[in-house]
Specification:
The structure holds two protein chains of two kinds. Chain A has 15 helices and no strands. By secondary structure, chain A is an all-alpha fold. Chain B is built from ten helices and eleven strands. Chain B has helices at 3-28, 36-43, 52-70, 101-109, 166-170, 196-200, 244-247, 254-258, 275-282, 308-312; strands spanning 75-77, 87-92, 122-127, 152-157, 176-178, 184-186, 206-208, 223-225, 237-239, 264-268, 298-301. Classes of the chains: A mainly alpha, B alpha/beta.
């Protein structure tokens, strides 16, 4: 038993020098983030740039983006399990590990955005006062935790079975896999409904918001995965076929086309009807009464997304890994800006009473966010390391009664 | 479920929780000022689930602690709503001069933080005859020395005490709700500070304690209500409660009393002889952002001149 644990720890923290440097780097950034968390808890959220006019900021922006990344695991789950597409089935486990890491980051972002994070127990059903089903935030707490639990189970069950060199129990796994598909869609839909349900915020109060969230999530999440898969392929002995990667790039292409179409529909409706409700959109794209802090950001995001789409729709460029990687980086950055800065901030600018407070995150908010990202990547790295070690047979149960495959 | 039944099961719930969560909580709580009353505060249940005895004890403890902290005879009560009373408010826009006396009277009465400065009433200045009540055209940071300015009118905004309040609906922990007399209150101890209510409020009426509220010792208003003007914890959302500590004892709100021109009217709409009832029945009143269906109980009206044209001739 102790031997097994030592072996596990060796797998987690041992490895090549670049791997160790990467781990040390992530730990360092996490530690710096933790220091800023201490300052924030001590002083209160006044240490951030958020104020009454813009009461949600960078944390909720990151949360929203990462829910999309988490939901995108379904892009692998559907072809792997429903269509039994072999090349993707080989890598679906990594997608589930990504979901686990992303949801963990989501939960950290939400908790650190709370004014009184220590009172989290008020949210626990029965013990606390869980305002379900009225509050969409209560729904979100529920679906995020269910989704996390599902993916944790799927990941650990798969790793455990490989470790024991036993066959999957398909009858046991099947309901969980099936359920993880609507669960993935639900986390991003419910997150969109948090915003879309507010009559007070015309910028968010649109039926198109949930479909837009899903479309952009199916761009950014898989784009991230494509890059990670190539790194894994290069750095380890684990084999990932070109076929799998090209299938994912096709999915991104469709999702991006749909995403741009929905964005265009929304912009048309606002610009053509030109009601008072257009103020936030003006602030975002053109600036309002001389306030234009977000304008360069949103136009960069737009340029990133359009360029990436241009690359993706040309088959020769999509199938070329250099140009494909450029497209993936552009999409990740583009959607990060669009879903983060471009969605959350303008919902509050101008405020409901017409105030313009040009919010932008300060150093503390950025450091805490980086800390959470580093922590999430740490989870992802270590879990992936274990999974690959088990898969390659490096880490195996040494029990004598091992069943042969 | 009856009130009593719910309270009973909650006592066991609280005990169970205390046992279960003590370990986890130790990590989250600042240990340096952990003492018995901090623990009681941490595990205190939702206001509506407190038994009569528990509430009595909490109010006594709180009064004692605040008296000690502020060095005066402080009293925190939890006066319930009166039977047959539903409050409503009306503001005569044509008389308001934008002096912001109400804003400061409110801060004093309600023990709002002086540093960082928190106000529960905002006042917007509009040009007459420009675009009617487009809030974007309103100016919040006008110079109070110059009021009333020619060609302008003023619109003070505080919690509209909506009948269908979006803030109540969205709160994930039910920390804000509408009382039987129509006042929307917050249990500051139960609020987790997620600020979803602030995103949901169409009137910018909910204000967060971004830092630890600070009130000078000699300026504390010692007559307090648990759901009203007691000093709030850092990281909780606060809001106008129509001075629940006063109005439930038959007094006017501080803003009504402070208004030098009598533009603020308050009363019980269930009383057919009340002034507020007269205004609602006889003046052309309107509410803000009617299209959102929040049904505010805060009305605005013009006693002098009722058309925009009248207003544009000073």
């Amino acid at each position: 038993m102790i031997d097994a644990i030592i072996k596990l720890l060796k797998t987690m923290f041992g490895g090549s020098t670049p791997y160790k440097i990467w781990l040390a780097f992530l730990l360092l950034v996490t530690a710096v983030g933790a220091y800023f968390v201490y300052i924030q808890i001590d002083e209160g959220l006044i240490a951030t740039n958020m104020r009454d006019q813009v009461s949600w900021g960078w944390y909720i922006a990151n949360f929203t983006f990462l829910v999309g990344v988490a939901a995108a695991a379904v892009v692998l789950v559907i072809p792997a399990y429903i269509y039994k597409y072999k090349p993707i089935k080989d890598i679906v486990l990594i997608g589930e590990i990504m979901a686990v890491s992303a949801v963990t980051m989501c939960l950290l972002f939400v908790v650190l955005d709370m004014g009184a994070p220590e009172k989290f127990w008020h949210l626990i059903p029965f013990i606390g006062y869980f305002n379900f089903p009225q509050s969409i935030l209560a729904w979100d707490v529920l679906v995020l935790n269910v989704y996390l639990a599902l993916n944790l189970f799927l990941v650990f069950y798969a790793i455990w079975k490989m470790y024991k060199q036993e066959e999957y129990n398909h009858k046991l796994m099947w309901p969980f896999i099936l359920f993880s598909i609507p669960a993935a869609i639900s986390i991003h839909t419910v997150t969109a409904f948090i915003y879309a349900g507010l009559g007070a915020r015309p910028f968010w109060n649109a039926a198109i918001l949930a479909p837009r969230f899903i479309a952009s999530a199916f761009c950014s999440g898989p784009a991230f995965m494509l890059i990670i898969f190539q790194i894994i392929r290069k750095r380890t002995t684990f084999e990932i076929s070109d076929k799998a990667l090209l299938k994912i790039s096709e999915i991104i292409t469709f999702a991006m086309a749909f995403n741009l179409f929905l964005l265009g529909s929304e912009i048309f409706k606002e610009v053509y009807s030109d009601s008072q409700h257009i103020a936030a959109l003006h602030y975002l794209y053109t600036g309002l009464h001389g306030h234009d802090r977000l304008v360069p950001w949103i136009w960069s995001a737009m340029a990133f997304n359009l360029t990436a789409f241009g690359i993706l729709i040309i088959p020769s460029l999509r199938k070329n890994f250099t140009t494909l990687n450029i497209a993936c980086v552009l999409i990740f950055a583009g959607v990060y800006i669009e879903k983060g800065i471009g969605l959350v901030f303008p919902g509050f600018i101008p405020s409901t009473m017409g105030d313009i407070y040009e919010y932008f995150p300060n150093t503390l908010e950025i450091m805490i966010s980086l800390g959470i990202w580093a922590f999430g990547l740490l989870i992802f790295t270590i879990l992936t390391k274990i999974a690959l070690a088990v898969k390659s047979g490096e880490l195996r149960c040494s029990c004598t009664e091992t069943k042969s495959r | 479920m009856s009130e009593k039944k719910e309270n009973k099961s909650d006592i066991t719930r609280r005990k169970l929780l205390a046992g279960l969560a003590a370990g986890t909580a130790a990590l989250a709580l600042p240990l340096r000022d952990a003492n018995a009353s901090k623990w009681e505060e941490y595990f205190r249940q939702h206001f509506k689930r407190l038994s009569k005895e528990d509430l009595k004890q909490i109010l006594a403890d709180m009064s004692r602690d605040l008296s000690k902290e502020y060095d005066k005879d402080a009293k925190v009560e939890a006066t319930p709503a009166m039977d047959g009373v539903i409050f409503a408010y009306a503001l005569d826009v044509s008389r308001c001069i934008g002096c912001r006396k109400c804003v400061h009277a409110c801060a004093k009465e309600n023990n709002l933080s002086r540093n960082p400065e928190v106000h529960w009433i905002i006042d917007l200045k509009f040009k007459k005859n420009v675009r009617w009540l487009n809030f974007e055209e309103g100016e919040r940071y006008y110079n109070p020395q110059l009021v009333p300015e020619k060609g302008h009118f003023y619109l003070p905004i505080q919690c509209q005490q909506c009948e269908k309040s979006p803030c109540e609906k969205v709160c994930p922990v039910g920390a804000t709700w509408k009382e039987p007399d129509g006042i929307v209150v917050v249990d500051y101890n139960w609020c987790i500070g997620c600020r979803y209510c602030m995103a949901a409020c169409p009137y910018g009426a909910r204000h967060f304690n971004w830092g630890k509220p600070k009130i000078p010792k000699d300026e504390l208003n010692p007559d307090m209500h648990y759901l009203g003007n007691r000093p709030q914890p850092k990281g909780a959302v606060g809001k106008c409660t129509w001075c629940i500590q006063r109005t439930r004892k038959g007094r006017y709100t501080a803003c009504v009393e402070a208004c030098p021109v009598g533009s603020r009217k308050f009363g019980n709409v269930m009383d057919s002889k009340s002034e507020i009832r007269y205004i609602l029945e006889n003046m052309r009143v309107f509410t803000l952002k009617e299209e959102l269906g929040t049904h505010p109980k805060f009305f605005y009206y013009f006693s002098l001149g009722s058309t925009i044209k009248d207003l544009s001739h000073d």
